[in-house]
Fold:
Amino acid sequence: MTVDTDRLLPPAPVTSLADHLDAGGGEALARAQELGSDAICDLLEEAGLRGRGGAGFPTARKWRGVAATARDGGGSVTLVANAAEGEPGTYKDRTLIEQQPYAFLEGVCIALEATGAVTAHIGIKEKFTVPLARLTTALTEIREAGWAHADRIEVVTGPDAYLFGEESAMLEVIEGNLPMPRIVKPFEAGLAASTTTASPTVVNNVETLAHVTAILAYGAEWFRQAGTEDSPGTMLFTVVGDVASPGVYELALGTSLRTLLTDVAGAEDVKAVYSGVSNAVITEAMLDTPLCFDRMREAGSGLGSGGFVVYDRSRSIVDVLRVLVHFLAVESCGQCNACKLGNSAMADLLAKVQRGEAEQTDLEALLRWTHTVTDQNRCYLPVGSQIMVGSTVEAFVDEFVATVQAGEPTPADLPTPLVEHIDDDTGEVTYHERYHLKQLDWSYSDEEPGALRLEAIRDPETPHPQ
Ligand SMILES: Cc1cc2nc3c(=O)[nH]c(=O)nc-3n(C[C@H](O)[C@H](O)[C@H](O)COP(=O)(O)O)c2cc1C
Ligand code: SF4
Structure:
């Protein structure tokens, strides 16, 4: 078992800039300034760094693209560091920020140098109070120390919504709006874009930027000592659910999924695993797949942002899928009718199956919705439900049919696997405690109707609030 924990995650949290400098911090940024934009991108290309936010997109290609758009008269580049971490089963970005915020911030400074971006915005949820405090303290320290570009970085807090992490929706939040995805991608029309200026924005995940720092510090060859040809380096993996040792682990890419789940996290009797909510279900038969972007895709699923939710054989697959699809139905923003309607309909149908009230035709209807839920989609969210529902029903069709035929309620006791906290010492995982109260319009059912002013609806004479 190769457990490589010393690249991004330090043996003990780095709590001051002085400690970071003692361990060689700051050298990566100094090297980046010597190299300049093109040579930094060459180095990242040589290292083969791929984004850790979900799609595995090559970082150098992304950076070169926005720089070229700006050069061709597209206006100025801006940078966004994505610390929203809203994917179910993921906790690695918060762990990284809490344990080593300086390496991440150094990566932001290097990205500013390489892309020529005028500003960097770090988008993080307001509710992530501990990492937020670590981040703002560390940012103050590097500003006071006069780090290059540090005075052009700002932290933007955002809402507790899945879509806050979708890159174009994050731009909306930075501009003061709700997290509603845009039709146009950030590299085509970024922050403060106009009809005549693209102002491209590059969006990168927290972990991606921390790898940038390590590559500048130690080189491309060192980076490639871990990982595979197509997926070099290490990655931070979160494992939660039915495992003995949930947590965040740094492993070389190419390690088998079985090693991560069973040897490291202590999973037994695996029934179904989900790498977030955008990929097909992973079954026992797929556990020997190497943790690489392409091999996971070829095996029929995906690596996502490295967060795995494990369900063992004691779980009802109907409950598993019901919880995940309900999450997507709630989080869908409703700009595209097929997405909100389709996800809500699928969530309702799965709840009907769980209550033991469904018929065979309900299963057929569920599968029919997977064909239309993505119609005219602005963002990738409904592709997740399409893939998850289709793959899960196919893999566990006998259990779905047997549940419908039995006509009896099955368990409904699983939490939505949105990780709030993983205790380092005990390994105890806390999930979002209020998620079951979140409604399709993003309000919480135990909140005062407040803005709705129900009495005003009933009595038109009631004066409007000022
Ligand atoms: C619905 C949705 C939610 C997302 N949430 C996150 C998130 O919480 N954090 C993140 O880094 N990327 C998230 N992404 C991916 C981002 O849109 C973007 O691709 C990523 O931040 C790019 O970073 P990278 O190139 O460094 O991987 C999400 C995408 C979608 C469609
Ligand atoms: S696809 Fe769904 S989540 Fe994405 S913008 Fe459209 S309605 Fe919103």
Remarks:
- The radius of gyration is 23 Å.
- Confidence is low (pLDDT under 50) at residues 1-5.
- The pocket of flavin mononucleotide (ligand 1) is lined by residues 51-55, 57, 62, 82, 84-87, 162-163, 165-167, 203-205, 208, 379-381 (CB under 6 Å).
- The CA atoms of residues 83 and 392 lie 29 Å apart.
